[in-house]
Design brief:
Elements: H1 2-26, H2 28-34, H3 40-92, H4 96-120, H5 126-148, H6 152-168, H7 172-198, H8 216-228, H9 237-267, H10 272-284, H11 286-302
Helix pairs in contact: 1-2, 1-3, 3-4, 3-7, 4-7, 5-6, 7-9, 8-9, 9-10, 9-11, 10-11
Keywords: Coiled coil, Membrane, Transmembrane, Transmembrane helix
Pfam families: DUF2232
Organism: Bacillus inaquosorum KCTC 13429
Length: about 300
């Protein structure tokens, strides 16, 4: 009876998974939103029946998706199925934080895998094509500006944009990390109402004010900062490591600083608007962002939360 019920639920959720995949592939606006809900069938099935049956469901669903959704549907479904199974496994163990981290790692690995496949087998380099199109757009804008007569100031802006473009092409690893984290968080927040209904004993995430990264983040960030002072040339491996490390670790330290601000406002019973204003200023003004990063370094390095009374 239990096996029959598991098969029936698996058939229903595979059908739902295939339908959502079709909407993601063929309905642009709605599909963009449903993309983050695509791991839901895998999450629910893995929670209810365990990791082993969850993997079996994922394996069975992929041929079904390929038949109804073509190769594009298979690409989307594979990534979402893997992330959903991993997240469902940790949700079953009542570890929502690990579920989000595992989902983010799966998304990142799948993006890297697709990127390698596109280069090795299809001969398509997504980064080079994007850079080429962007440079062509800059050339068109430069031609129009020269013809209009207002060339001096706009040419300076175009040169600045070209310099920034040269830096952006080395930040592909940072983009992968950000996309993976965003996808995983959105999948969790979409799944949360259903998780509460089917597994009410799954705990909530800790409040943002209690977020605390390990001290090793500060140590790595200081190493990366010292590395950036070396005469590194573009194209070198160390240049790419220093650039991406500074962005990723700097962002984590910025988040740590914001977490401390929320913690401080909570302890002092200040209104939440004060913390929200700090977030807005930090995102808009570079000087506030630098101040919040310094606060994050101090919080991680010296544990100043214990001194807040």
């Amino acid at each position: 009876m239990k096996q029959t019920r598991a098969l029936l639920e698996g058939a229903i959720l595979i059908s739902l998974f295939a339908i959502i995949t079709l909407l993601v592939v063929y309905v642009p606006v709605i599909g963009t939103i449903l993309l983050f809900a695509l791991p839901l069938p895998m999450i629910l099935y893995t929670i209810r029946h365990g990791l082993k049956l969850g993997i079996w469901m994922g394996a069975v669903s992929l041929p079904v998706v390929f038949i109804v959704g073509s190769f594009n549907g298979l690409i989307v479904a594979f990534m979402s199925a893997c992330a959903g199974i991993a997240m469902g496994h940790f949700f079953k163990r009542k570890e929502p934080g690990h579920a989000i981290i595992s989902g983010a790692l799966i998304y990142m690995l799948c993006i890297v895998f697709y990127f390698v496949i596109s280069i090795q087998f299809l001969g398509i380099n997504i980064i080079d094509e994007a850079m080429t199109q962007y440079r062509q757009s800059l050339d068109i804008v430069e031609t129009v500006v020269k013809q209009s007569g207002n060339a001096e100031q706009l040419e300076k802006q175009l040169k600045l944009m070209e310099e920034q473009l040269g830096m952006v092409q080395y930040l592909f690893p940072t983009a992968i990390v950000m996309v993976g984290a965003i996808f995983s968080f959105l999948s969790y927040f979409i799944a949360k109402p259903l998780l509460r209904r089917f597994s009410p004993d799954i705990p909530n995430l800790k409040p943002f004010r209690e977020l605390k990264f390990p001290q090793s983040v500060v140590v790595l960030y200081l190493i990366i900062v010292m590395l950036s002072f070396l005469p590194l040339e573009k194209g070198q491996m160390l240049y790419s490591i220093a650039l991406n490390g500074e962005f990723i670790l700097g962002f984590l330290i910025f988040i740590q600083g914001l977490s401390f601000i929320f913690f401080y406002c909570h302890k002092k019973k200040y209104p939440k608007a004060a913390a929200v204003i700090a977030v807005v200023l930090g995102l808009m003004l570079p000087i506030f962002m630098a101040a919040i990063r310094i606060l994050g370094v101090i919080d991680m390095g010296f544990n100043i939360r214990n001194k807040v009374k």
